[in-house]
Amino acid sequence: MSVSKNEARLRVLALYKAWHRQIPFIVEEYDIPVNHKQCQLKVKERFLANANVKDTRVIDMLVVKVHTIRISIC
Question: How many helices (H) and strands (E) does the chain have?
Answer without folding.
Answer: 3, 0
